[in-house]
Amino acid sequence: MPSLQRIESQVAALPEPDLRQFRSWFDEFDTQRWDQTLTADINNGKLDSLAAEALAQYGAGRCKPL
Predict the structure, then answer these.
(1) Whether 24 contacts 18, CB under 8 Å
(2) 11-25, pLDDT tens digit by residue?
């Protein structure tokens, strides 16, 4: 059985208390991984064009207050 299928099967077989604990752990893990990816993208300039466009739209008065 491939690795991902084995993991899915094991997660599906967890008793409810363990599943809650796993869900909490995975949520934190996923959040940290996403933050690392976003930080790397920012540091590598991948979002610079989007930021420049947003600032240009703001400077041109095309933004509404939230």
Answers:
(1) no
(2) 999 999 999 999 999
